[in-house]
Write a structure and sequence with these properties.
The chain has 17 helices and 2 strands. Helix 2 (28-48) packs parallel to helix 14 and helix 12 packs antiparallel against helix 15 (427-452). The chain has a two-stranded antiparallel ribbon. It is an all-alpha fold. Helices cover 72% and strands 1% of the residues. It has one domain (19-218, 233-457): Growth Hormone, Chain: A, CATH 1.20.1250.20. The model is unreliable at 1-11 (pLDDT under 50).
Length: 498
């Protein structure tokens, strides 16, 4: 303890009521689920509605350009809001109200429209509207996750509950729509029925918890009196924090890998491996394996194990599993495939679980360096990165499958009945599907490993950062007055994290 920090009265841990923890955590049913659902089925949905695979990828990419503006902008708006309900909760409530119509427009069945340009325009506008609503919710919610308590351990517990909800929702939101897509491909249902089920069932799954979170959650971090001006400098200010950039890159590359797997799982299992079984079996095994390792991570976290180290611990297994499943001969015996999926699930667990537990610690570093707490701006960039991962996955898929050399045969939808006819794929398309998964995942997850290694945050260091912030907020942070040990640690934090 430093000479200065020793005089600070120990802050009592802030306990958040269990009901509030559950209502707050359940709202991440949207955060974890909606992106998983879109990654899993939206490209296939657009193609089945008669949008060419190249235009489907373009819809997603143009929407991301719009999203690149709205995410940081929402962060500034949220940071500057002052109401008796706080800065974040009003926007979560508004977003929950707008979500159902936005989600309905996103999954509007337009297979009967024969004019490709009109169909493209409607889906593009719908996607941009949906992304705007998603931004309102996600930026406000992720900011609230850093402000629901001022105690590090309590925030870790709250965000762990949140991530359990997110993980469950991700599983449901990837598996159930894929089963529906397979029913659509097998002509058991038509596109109208598919859209109705998606809109009603998943709309309710995401919207209701958001309303509950907005009503029952509280913000406990003091709100700064000064408001921030709208400027490009304000938008990108969090990028001045070195550790935040490393964190963002590791987060982007790791989640893009999962989105690539999810986006291609239907075609990969059907054409690439020729399993003769539902592709959802692969995802179920991966997700159950991932979930089985989660208690181990929580146990290690409770013992003070460094979060970035947990992030990358299983990545070598992840790469091994991907290589095995992508090079496994099509039509070969099924029994080795679940083993490969278990290896993938165990390997990916850390890089899927840890980022949102680590995020509040990274925001604290930003507060120490920037001398202000702009969690909304950090969340805006973070939210954009999460959405960008699914866009990258869909763009890679649409670009590769659209190549003439690959020769992928798109399914055809009857414009009167909405039923879908699929085709056998040439060998070039089969190998295209395998390479879409294997090459980007190996490259991206290796980059995630590299940048995570630069995110040098431990529990002890995060606690010390909180102490420095307390001193800074009181105007008492004078490096020369710190003990030798604290001065040395502060200089290391500056060098490695600022």
């Amino acid at each position: 303890m430093s000479e200065t920090t020793a005089n600070i009265k120990a802050e009592q841990p802030q306990k958040v009521p269990l009901k509030e923890k559950l209502f707050f955590g359940s709202a991440d049913m949207f955060g974890g689920g909606a992106q998983a659902l879109i990654s899993a089925v939206y490209l296939v949905f657009l193609v089945n509605n008669g949008v060419s695979i190249e235009l489907a990828g373009l819809i997603v990419m143009v929407s991301k350009i719009w999203d690149a503006v709205t995410d940081p902008l929402m962060g500034i708006i949220s940071d500057n809001t002052r109401t008796k309900w706080g800065r974040r909760r009003p926007y979560i409530f508004l977003g929950a109200f707008l979500f159902i119509p936005a989600f309905a427009l996103l999954f509007l069945p337009l297979y009967s429209i024969q004019i490709q340009g009109l169909k493209f325009s409607i889906y593009l506008v719908s996607y941009c509207f949906y992304m705007t609503v998603s931004t309102i919710i996600s930026v406000s919610y992720s900011s609230l996750s850093t402000e629901i308590s001022t105690d590090i351990d309590e925030k870790t517990r709250i965000n762990s509950i949140r991530l359990l909800f997110s993980m469950v929702s991700s599983g449901i939101s990837a598996l159930a729509p894929i089963l529906l897509i397979e029913q659509l491909q097998n002509r058991a249902i038509n596109i109208d029925q598919f859209s109705l089920i998606i809109i009603l069932a998943f709309g309710a799954l995401y919207a209701i918890p958001l309303f509950l979170c907005a009503i029952f959650s509280k913000e406990r971090v003091p709100i700064p009196k000064e408001k921030k001006k709208f400027s490009i400098k304000t938008f990108v200010k969090p990028l001045k924090v070195k550790v935040f950039v490393y964190f963002l890159l590791s987060y982007l590359f790791s989640f893009t890998c999962m989105d690539i797997i999810t986006a291609n799982i239907v075609f990969f299992a059907d054409y690439g491996l020729k399993l003769g079984k539902s592709s959802s079996i692969l995802l179920i095994i991966i997700m159950l394996s991932y979930a089985a390792v989660v208690p181990v991570h929580y146990k290690l976290l409770s013992k003070g194990f460094a979060k970035p180290k947990l992030f990358r611990m299983g990545i070598p297994l992840y790469i091994l599993g991907i290589i095995c499943i992508c090079l496994y001969p099509a039509g070969a015996p099924f029994w080795p495939v679940p083993i490969f999926c278990v290896i993938i699930g165990v390997g990916m667990s850390g890089c899927q679980l840890i980022p949102w537990i680590l995020f509040p610690d990274v925001v604290d570093v930003g507060e120490l360096k920037l001398k202000e707490r702009i969690a909304g701006s950090f969340s805006g960039i973070m939210t954009f990165i999460r959405k960008a991962s699914s866009a990258i996955a869909i763009a890679i898929t649409s670009w590769v499958l659209g190549l003439d050399i690959v020769g992928f045969r798109e399914p055809v939808t009857d414009y009167l009945t909405g039923t879908v006819t699929k085709f056998e794929q040439p060998e070039s398309a089969v190998w295209g599907l395998r390479m879409i998964v294997m090459v980007p995942v190996i490259v991206f997850i290796s980059l995630a490993f590299f940048f995570s290694a630069k995110t040098k945050l431990t529990k002890a260091r995060s606690q010390k950062i909180k102490e420095f912030i307390e001193l800074q907020n009181k105007g008492e942070l004078d490096i020369e007055k710190l003990s030798e040990a604290d001065r040395e640690e502060y200089l290391k934090i500056q060098k490695e994290l600022f």
